[in-house]
Design brief:
heterodimer; A: alpha/beta; Aconitase, domain 3; Aconitase, Domain 2; five-stranded parallel β-sheet; B: Aconitase, domain 4; 7 strands; 32% helix; 16% strand; globular; 4Fe-4S (chain A); 3-isopropylmalate dehydratase activity (chain A); Acnase/IPM_dHydase_lsu_aba_1/3 (chain A); Aconitase_4Fe-4S_dom (chain A); amino-acid biosynthesis (chain A)
Chain lengths: 468, 201
Amino acid sequence: MSPKTLYDKIWDAHVAHEAEDGTCLLYIDRHLVHEVTSPQAFEGLRMSGRKVRAPEKTIAVPDHNVPTTLDRDDATTMTEDSRIQVEALDKNARDFGVHYYPVNDVRQGIVHIVGPEQGWTLPGMTVVCGDSHTATHGAFGALAHGIGTSEVEHVLATQTLIQKKSKNMKVEITGKLAPGVTAKDITLAVIGKTGTAGGTGYVIEYCGEAIRGLSMEGRMTVCNMAIEGGARAGLIAPDETTFEYCKGRPHAPKGAQWEAAMEWWKTLYSDDDAHWDKVLTIKGEDIAPVVTWGTSPEDVLPITAKVPAAADFTGGKVGAAQRSLDYMGLTPGTPLNEVAIDTVFIGSCTNGRIEDLRAAAAILKGKKVKDGLRAMVVPGSGLVRAQAEEEGLADIFKDAGFEWRLAGCSMCLAMNPDQLAPGERCASTSNRNFEGRQGFKGRTHLMSPAMAAAAAITGKLTDVREMM
Amino acid sequence: MDKFDKLTGVAAPMPLVNIDTDMIIPKQFLKTIQRSGLGANLFDEMRYDREGNEVPDFVLNQPAYREAEILVAGENFGCGSSREHAPWAIKDFGIRCVIAPSFADIFYNNCFKNGILPIALPQEAVDVLMKDAEKGSNARMSVDLEAQTVTTSDGEVFTFELDSFKKHCLMEGLDDIGLTMAKEASIDSYEAQAAQARPWV
């Protein structure tokens, strides 16, 4: 048999139909659904009298719109249109009989945190969701990617997607990470190298010693931002760390089923002589704690660097860089660690898991948030929140001056009340620094939770290594 | 879905790389539960000031381009979120074709589900088309899906590549779900076989 990549193996196991031109029907094992990209899809089903083909493989949770303030049970904390979307999901989940975690369920949270946490996401699966950060689930060695609403409707109706196979790209992070360098720095550093379109047309498999050394939480952070590199999906081959994470989760297999699953899961790796269409290798030791300076996730620099000038770039990027500098209100040549911030946001599907909160709390312990700064921590799920409270992390955040919120997408995309004001500058653990992403004219610098915590203390972008 | 075959119209130039879906349709407009009506808010934060007044410089506010049916843009158009609200807004505004050196994957796929033709052409070709678009409303560009060509107002012709299945669906205005439903037997047998092989799923 010809050697295969991990992507090849998962793909081959899920082709339900292949046409002569190579267009396939890819069978979908898990369909995650949230309130923003699904209402039109459910409405489409109703209009055409179609049912959800596999409600038992469909999992819904509201996350984008929901307020994260403690008073959110009060319906007036949501705007009318947000409330309508959440209520539509309530109704659709009930009418079509899919698994559902409503706002007041302790298991509610960001869909990409809930799926793995509940054991819905398992190695070798195909996972889709009407959300680009579905790439997160690739951390389990599952083929996971975002889809549009028409495709959401297609999956609801047929449990398949019309797909053509992507190409294989290997991103290897060799060696070990230096102290203060995290999964977020890896994933940003990769995008800094490839650019936001470097992965377009590819499924990326992340591998190498530095990736192997990451926890599941860290691996999810890496895969989460595969989409920011343009890739259809990011993958990491499952190993003992993966199996250990999955074991005992509510929807993970048990007993003999677990053994049978393990037998297959252990075959899920790229063969030694598999073909790669593109390869990128980065030395783990060369990765520094990074921040973004511009309005594209590819605008990545080590915290020790200076704000670049538009003239440092070529082609269409010259104009884009100037536009970014103007938007961000930055002067070329300014050391990044002198850029003062107004707000700190710790959370999102990129960095809202327990390990992220631990990393931030380790920096914040016994310290205070800089006077006048707004700082919030938004756990990725109700269960992450509960665990952080049990571990004493919540107290560290609160003592430092952080707001301790309920679970949701919050300020990552600001569809809810958590937003930046015009000109407000934020150190954020989220995934996109686009213009207006966190609020109209808001300015976003992406970084790791530890770096965001360090910035909260000093009130400016800060090299976390100086605090360790 | 609306069919697409030929289109001749005004092309609006947006020589900016990495135009993301947050630019195309900001999140506050994702709260709709309908597909229609988003055209008024296409490129909202570039098109209007905080008070809702038009920004005169913005291309789609200029008299020449208010009726644009084609958009010419920089590389990696449509990067960012999976929101289909982006193509819905483009379509609702009246744009049926976007030309750029490259597109983000999910946005590209979403276009075809909505009767929009995304055309990827080499940078040099897009540069020529951008110049043509900058001539304003007297310069009408033509797109022929069957022939897979774009023709400038001066008659210069560029040929583009396109997946044959996507082309077929767009030309015929086919409903994907209907097409897949016709292959239901394959899905049934796959499902039965997968349930044996991987019962834990």
